[in-house]
């Protein structure tokens, strides 16, 4: 059918067909935009996953470095939660974990703000660790024990300071060097060192 006559249905159809590619093009552009967004989502997920892996790797490196820092000083060991846990496990093998437990109890005791709780905690700690024949008696001299007993009459956050310091010194001079020489810590340092080497960039 010819499209030259005005008002011819075929002419309208031709015009409609001529307009169709433009509409299709606009639709295609819209679809392309949407597909582009969808296509970028896996890439975004990949970036997030990579970031998470990097953060995990960073934590592992931090953990490895922390293990190596424990041998620098006893303070470094006590500052580390995982260090305290490892040291406590070692002390159990020597049946002397009560020294660290007492030190930790004193640290917690110092954070107590309520005077009522302070007094009750002080008595509980004294009965468990300090008094003669206590269930988990720590190794301190008689003079320090008596000073601590007198401090209980007016319990303050400092009433265990002397006993705690004596126990800390005992651990630092006696148990801590043995911990550093122990097979368990030596294994940890080897693993930490090997992880550190494997993480170094290759040149």
Automatic annotation (TrEMBL):
GO-annotated cellular components: membrane
Keywords per UniProt: GTPase activation, Lipoprotein, Membrane, Palmitate, Phosphoprotein, Signal, Signal transduction inhibitor
Domain annotation RGS: ranges: 73-189
Signal peptide stretch: 1-19
Phosphoprotein among keywords: yes
Domain of life: Eukaryota
Molecular function as annotated in GO: GTPase activator activity
Any one GO BP annotation for this protein: negative regulation of signal transduction
A Pfam family per the record: RGS
Subcellular location: Membrane
Role this protein plays: Regulates G protein-coupled receptor signaling cascades. Inhibits signal transduction by increasing the GTPase activity of G protein alpha subunits, thereby driving them into their inactive GDP-bound form. Plays an important role in the phototransduction cascade by regulating the lifetime and effective concentration of activated transducin alpha. May regulate extra and intracellular mitogenic signals.
Protein name: Regulator of G-protein signaling 16
Organism: Syrrhaptes paradoxus
Designated gene of the protein: Rgs16
């Amino acid at each position: 059918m010819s499209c030259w006559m005005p008002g011819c249905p075929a002419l309208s159809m031709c015009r409609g067909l001529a307009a169709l590619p433009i509409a299709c093009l606009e639709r295609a552009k819209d679809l392309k935009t949407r597909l582009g967004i969808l296509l970028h989502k896996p890439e975004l997920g990949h970036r997030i996953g990579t970031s998470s892996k990097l953060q995990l790797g960073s934590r592992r490196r931090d953990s490895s470095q922390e293990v190596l820092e424990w041998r620098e000083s006893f303070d470094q060991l006590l500052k580390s939660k995982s260090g305290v846990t490892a040291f406590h496990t070692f002390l159990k093998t020597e049946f002397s974990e009560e020294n660290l437990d007492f030190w930790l109890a004193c640290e917690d005791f110092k954070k107590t703000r309520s005077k009522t709780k302070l007094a009750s905690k002080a008595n509980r700690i004294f009965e468990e660790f300090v008094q003669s024949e206590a269930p988990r008696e720590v190794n301190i001299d008689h003079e320090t024990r008596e000073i601590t007993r007198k401090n209980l009459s007016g319990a303050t956050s400092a009433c265990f300071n002397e006993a705690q310091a004596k126990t800390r010194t005992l651990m630092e001079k006696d148990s801590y060097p043995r911990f550093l020489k122990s097979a368990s810590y030596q294994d940890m340092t080897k693993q930490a060192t090997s992880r550190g080497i494997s993480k170094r960039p290759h040149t």
